[in-house]
Specification:
3-stranded antiparallel sheet; 2 domains; alpha+beta; homodimer; Nucleoside Triphosphate Pyrophosphohydrolase
Chain lengths: ~200, ~200
């Protein structure tokens, strides 16, 4: 019964994935560029003939990871960081870019050491998530880090980050609270919850 | 026992929210501007004296909403839209900007009619979520829409969107699948799940 339901929902969705025809890119050019960002203008013709001018921020630079780190007391590791977009501090998950030659898991482990002072003996790749794919080419790889041990590495942060250990089973309170707002962190927590609940179901079979 | 645990987790987090001192903004200027985006350069001095040059995309224009719409069969309303950031189609939640004079709930209802062909008799404001607050001033208001009825409004989309109705109780499969990738949609689904589970618990008391 459970398997049948999974089949129904995702199979229905899968069926329609073969239908749409991508719009034609009539023109693509860089309209602005800064140290970190590029803005592209995109002239598109959709398959129904309608033409539209889009703008997007294409991906630039390295891949990035976001880390759902859970310690042996089943606590989620949160950092408190300065958020320039809103000029405020908020709780967040550790994240950062992948260095040349690093795997996603290695990058996650290094960022966790730099930002939160923990290493992980167990790292699982969960999935890739996007930010605002309608307008931006940015994405992050979600890594689950477990079996933590204290280990710090110097990072490139302007100031040491406060680290908070929050009961993972109370994640519902956290994602409904004003202490955290970032979609990517809330999405990564949800994805980790699904992974952990399936892992625990499988281990009981 | 349950209430005690809620108190413990969030109270611990609350305690530290009074500590950090915001960095001083030494300089803030627009370095690039396009039709849709502005890029600002920000020279900051953190409370430990370290100075850093940041870049951010400040908020521009109107507030925006994202709609978790659930029909009477407990199905989630998904749209299939073109995503310029990755030049591909993907499933997503309806979203859009708030028109002058509209409430968030009214904007959500209108976007739902324009993008998915449904109106809602019951609309709940859930919370505000941010995108990538470390670098961007963008946010969205999450609205839960229920008691749906068929009603279409002409929108500003370049092509009609395919609408998919997906079993909400199978959301775990969806957020783990390749059919949807956007953090904001996955986060909004999680936030709606928490709201609905609490509503259902409260109604049983």
């Amino acid at each position: 019964m459970h398997h049948l339901r999974i089949l129904t929902g995702l199979t229905k969705v899968w069926r329609i994935t073969i239908l749409p025809k991508l719009p034609e890119i009539l023109e693509l050019r860089t309209v602005a560029q800064s140290r970190l960002f590029t803005i592209e203008s995109m002239k598109l013709r959709f398959s129904n003939g309608v033409e539209r001018l889009y703008e997007r921020l294409p991906k630039r630079g390295r891949e990035a990871v976001i880390v759902v780190a859970i310690n042996q007391k089943n606590e989620l590791i949160l950092i408190r960081e300065y958020l320039a977009g809103f000029h405020k501090y908020e709780l967040n998950l550790p994240k950062g870019t992948v260095d040349p030659g690093e795997s996603y898991e290695e990058a996650a482990n290094r960022e966790l050491k730099e930002e939160a002072g923990f290493g992980a003996k167990k790292l699982d790749y969960l999935r890739e998530i996007t930010l605002a794919p309608g307008h931006m080419g940015f994405s992050l790889h979600v890594i689950l880090a477990r079996e933590l041990f204290p280990e710090s590495l110097p990072g490139d942060e302007p100031e040491p980050m406060e680290v908070e250990q929050y009961p993972f089973e109370e994640a519902d309170d956290l994602v409904s609270s004003v202490f955290i707002s970032e979609s990517r962190s809330i999405a990564a927590i949800k994805i980790a919850e699904v992974f952990l609940s399936r892992e625990s179901k499988n281990s009981r079979v």
